[in-house]
Amino acid sequence: MGTENPGRPSFPARPSSTPFAAPPPAVTPFLSSGPVAGPGASSFRPTSPAAPPNTLPSVSSALPAGSDGSGFRPTPPARFNDPSVSSPPITHVPPTSGPFQRLPTPPFPSMAQASLARAPPVGPQPGQYLPGQVSNPSVSFRSQPSPVPMGSPPQRATFAPPGVNFPQPSSDSSFSAPRPNSQPSFTPVDSSYPSARAPLQPSLPGYATMPPNAVSQMPTTASPFPSHQGSYMPGPPPAASPFPSHQGGFASASPLAPGLHSQHSAPPVGVMQNLAEDFSYLSMGSIPGSIEPGLDLKALPRPLDGDVEPNSLAEMFPLNCHSRYLRLTTSAIPNSSSLVSRWHLPLGAVVCPLAETPEGEEVPIVNFASTGIIRCRRCRTYVNPYVTFTDAGRKWRCNICSLLNDVPGDYFAHLDATGRRIDIDQRPELIKGSVEFVAPTEYMVRPPMPPLYFFLIDVSISAVRSGMIEVVAQTIKSCLDELPGFPRTQIGFITYDSTIHFYNMKSSLTQPQMVVVSDLDDMFVPLPDDLLVNLSESRSVVETFLDCLPTMFQDNVNVESAFGPALKAAFMVMSRLGGKLLIFQNSLPSLGIGRLKLRGDDLRVYGTDKEHALRIPEDPFYKQMAADLTKFQIGVNVYAFSDKYTDIASIGTLAKYTGGQVYYYPSFQSTIHGEKLRHELSRDLMRETAWEAVMRIRCGKGIRFTAYHGNFMLRSTDLLALPAVDCDKAYAMQLSLEETLLTTQTVYFQVALLFQMKFFYIFHLFVNINKTTFLVWEIVHMLGISLTIKRYTASCGERRIRVHTLAAPVVADLSEMYRQADTGAIVSLFSRLAIEKTLSHKLEDARNSVQLRIVKALKEYRNLYAVQHRLGGRMIYPESLKYLPLYGLALCKSTPLRGGYADAQLDERCAAGYTMMALPVKKLLKLLYPSLIRVDEYLLKPSGQVNELENIMKRLPLVSESLDYRGLYICDDGFRFVIWFGRMLSPDIAMNLLGPDFAAELSKVTLSEQDNEMSRKLLKVVKKLRENDPSYYQLTHLVRQGEQPREGYLLLSNLVEDQIGGTSGYVDWLMQIHRQIQQNA
Ligand SMILES: [Zn+2]
């Protein structure tokens, strides 16, 4: 590949096909139904509630296109290599001594003059573009016929056939004692923080008025249910609580009255005996002696243990891969399409192929060497614990397609009396649900490329003023030793404002040379051979560059952003090798191709059919670029910093379709947010990454994955292209039945991720000891010392296939599907579907669809039992789904979905959407229902107790009544910490923690260590919380009770069970759901 011309429009060979059944060569960019994504940091950070859309004076009239017609052209062929082409307009800065001395500080605009003759860099171009070229991302709430009429009386549940060997879960669910069933009343719950909520704006008007017969737009499916006890454990007794009536109220759920079923006629054998455990219910009547609405707040289920991974499937199939890698929305796969249509929740899976393993657990690596990887001849399934050996060990049967395959001679082993291979204990691939195969050379379509990191950095005035450039430069420098792939790692930089600045960092130079290109309309790459350099060879030049970068531009007053042309330039430089492109963007792209308009966030648009258009890219340039980047194995992460509108909807597309993520730091200031950026950029650079990956999930005959949701691009119908993938990324997919009836008793799923390794941890050891690593490494090799360090000892560039296999039972019984539902996986799919829906519909429609699906599911469930039981006014739900309504409510209040115009800034909304589309289940659930803990009592206790830290980690319900005005609390959503100081918190505590700032306005105070035990203890807690959740860095935000509007948007908006602004509280929400379930019941 090294000889391939980067500018040539032909594509480098793609590493995809072999391992996976014949994918077509072309990338189909927009098949992806996955919408937005990209884990960003920011969206969950406070933004000033009232910030109006900003105006960039110079941009407002810019036209949307560059001068060359289509959104994106193939790069000019061999422009820079061809001597016959006239020399490009380059400004070479004459070398002088001292780092960058030849670059007079703000080198532009004067330096950019060389090419002025060609085209003025600024101003509207008479562009024509072809908007039809790229279609909008399809959004995938596909509607399915929902044959279950709302309200029709249940026909009676179908119960498990004798053939289904499904262990009955132990009965642990509880029933609350039946309450008098008076009609639910709908008295609104009073908000106790009216003023605080003002900035949050009223908003979810659709909730109460949703027509009962509205058609669900989401596909129907089934869900399984794990059953956990969700009841709230009372927190530390709030001595003399200010809220006596409530504080005690959150005691655990009322004990249940068993025997409910006994009053009914005999149920079908085998299932009814466990009926009592099948569902839980809430009595909807009013509480005796109370005028409160009919629900007992304290009895409501709450996920105070966070995400609890279901384990029933693992008990049934111990050889399955761990649920951290693959979770089904129900572990009971329906055997018929009619059953699917009665399961109104998504039927599908959530896959996190590289999820981090706990310390000490590793995915075994299997090298078949000359034997070749054992796979099914027909369906290409990888050998796994569920294949069976027959014919004295000479044949094996594929568990997915049932084909009988020959066992290669090298792989032959005799069978014992039970039919097991005698060598099975030495064969991880036959006893582990997750393994990693070393891929032989035929799995490589091109030789391994060295890891490449390319940085595209905005240096316009706003970027300079924010301090972002300095933090980025320092962080990159500090990570140079840790970048994977040493000694082959390649690195390069482009900076831009109204012109594009290239850097020659050839190792023979003592300092980098800058080349400025100002012809934005016909982008070319000067010095094509020296813009990407080997990091080891050019290390000192790179370091010099990073040291100088912040000061080089410190006096820059350029307000323009030629982002599009800079992006094209980066693409041209990288296309030969592929790699990771990190974009640091601080302003709205204003010049050249890809310039964006100040679309603004118009109040009048909300609630109309045009609303969703704000949340999708306007200029096809970005999608086309994303498609090209993916094709050339370039993964993009976008870091966005502006305090003004920068059209994250458009720019984030680059991350979405290249398997990347969006980090968002609105109104970035290095003094405040520097640490967060430093941590997250370091993690991005150093976390384990699988390169040039493709992923496919196979499943047994009769079922099929039909839609995929997350950050990726689909290559062929079921192959996900992922130029770079890591442990922080998850993907969701929906399943449908191809046949009307499944006849098998078990179905199998197999996820296969083919990727290239670029780690070489052996080096890391030495890097820390001695900078002359290479020498040391060679000595080690000469001596034949073998080292096993960390997880991988693979040589650089090895290809691997990580395979996860899972079996699940097929059932003929709807109640079994519900019993085996996995709320975490369902919420994960729900979120993705709802966010995708906001790209083609109003926010309100997306929220309504969430609620409607919950209603339909619970109604169907209720119908299962209505015949046998007098359910009266009770709301019943499967134990496994007891948190679903609350997560649904939290989802409707999350940044991508909540409210309307004023409830979240447009960029913040889009960034949050990109982020949530990629989050693994656990992180998503924590974001939706953050953890609230009380810490003041812990701080006051003498330290030294064992487990004292664990003791305070008890989570509290997210209601304002959980907050004692004498307390100190931490609210943690995984993206930031909010430390809430009660109004009457002991001054001692405040003084100890804040020092001299204790009385100051807390928005101006940062938490730092004071010289006392209490302060150190608090910081220890904060540190512990961060360690538990390292994928993002949580800044601490301090807020005092009553400090408005900060308290509102920092903390109160997280109290998702409260009625906030115009949104429903938990009780109201349940009442609405219950009322709709009962309509026409
Ligand atoms: Zn097969």
From TrEMBL:
<dbReference type="InterPro" id="IPR006900">
    <property type="entry name" value="Sec23/24_helical_dom"/>
</dbReference>
<feature type="compositionally biased region" description="Low complexity">
    <location>
        <begin position="8"/>
        <end position="20"/>
    </location>
</feature>
<feature type="domain" description="Zinc finger Sec23/Sec24-type">
    <location>
        <begin position="373"/>
        <end position="411"/>
    </location>
</feature>
<feature type="domain" description="Sec23/Sec24 trunk">
    <location>
        <begin position="448"/>
        <end position="684"/>
    </location>
</feature>
<dbReference type="InterPro" id="IPR006896">
    <property type="entry name" value="Sec23/24_trunk_dom"/>
</dbReference>
<feature type="compositionally biased region" description="Polar residues">
    <location>
        <begin position="167"/>
        <end position="194"/>
    </location>
</feature>
<feature type="compositionally biased region" description="Polar residues">
    <location>
        <begin position="214"/>
        <end position="230"/>
    </location>
</feature>
<dbReference type="InterPro" id="IPR036180">
    <property type="entry name" value="Gelsolin-like_dom_sf"/>
</dbReference>
<dbReference type="InterPro" id="IPR041742">
    <property type="entry name" value="Sec24-like_trunk_dom"/>
</dbReference>
<dbReference type="Pfam" id="PF08033">
    <property type="entry name" value="Sec23_BS"/>
</dbReference>
<keyword id="KW-0653">Protein transport</keyword>
<keyword id="KW-0472">Membrane</keyword>
<feature type="domain" description="Sec23/Sec24 helical">
    <location>
        <begin position="822"/>
        <end position="925"/>
    </location>
</feature>
<dbReference type="InterPro" id="IPR012990">
    <property type="entry name" value="Beta-sandwich_Sec23_24"/>
</dbReference>
<protein>
    <recommendedName>
        <fullName>Protein transport protein Sec24-like At3g07100</fullName>
    </recommendedName>
</protein>
<dbReference type="Pfam" id="PF04811">
    <property type="entry name" value="Sec23_trunk"/>
</dbReference>
<comment type="similarity">
    <text>Belongs to the SEC23/SEC24 family. SEC24 subfamily.</text>
</comment>
<dbReference type="InterPro" id="IPR029006">
    <property type="entry name" value="ADF-H/Gelsolin-like_dom_sf"/>
</dbReference>
<dbReference type="InterPro" id="IPR036465">
    <property type="entry name" value="vWFA_dom_sf"/>
</dbReference>
<dbReference type="InterPro" id="IPR036175">
    <property type="entry name" value="Sec23/24_helical_dom_sf"/>
</dbReference>
<dbReference type="InterPro" id="IPR050550">
    <property type="entry name" value="SEC23_SEC24_subfamily"/>
</dbReference>
<dbReference type="InterPro" id="IPR036174">
    <property type="entry name" value="Znf_Sec23_Sec24_sf"/>
</dbReference>
<dbReference type="Pfam" id="PF04815">
    <property type="entry name" value="Sec23_helical"/>
</dbReference>
<keyword id="KW-0256">Endoplasmic reticulum</keyword>
<dbReference type="Pfam" id="PF04810">
    <property type="entry name" value="zf-Sec23_Sec24"/>
</dbReference>
<dbReference type="InterPro" id="IPR006895">
    <property type="entry name" value="Znf_Sec23_Sec24"/>
</dbReference>
<keyword id="KW-0931">ER-Golgi transport</keyword>
<feature type="region of interest" description="Disordered">
    <location>
        <begin position="1"/>
        <end position="263"/>
    </location>
</feature>
<keyword id="KW-0813">Transport</keyword>
<feature type="compositionally biased region" description="Polar residues">
    <location>
        <begin position="133"/>
        <end position="145"/>
    </location>
</feature>
<feature type="compositionally biased region" description="Low complexity">
    <location>
        <begin position="28"/>
        <end position="43"/>
    </location>
</feature>
<feature type="domain" description="Sec23/Sec24 beta-sandwich">
    <location>
        <begin position="690"/>
        <end position="757"/>
    </location>
</feature>
<keyword id="KW-0333">Golgi apparatus</keyword>
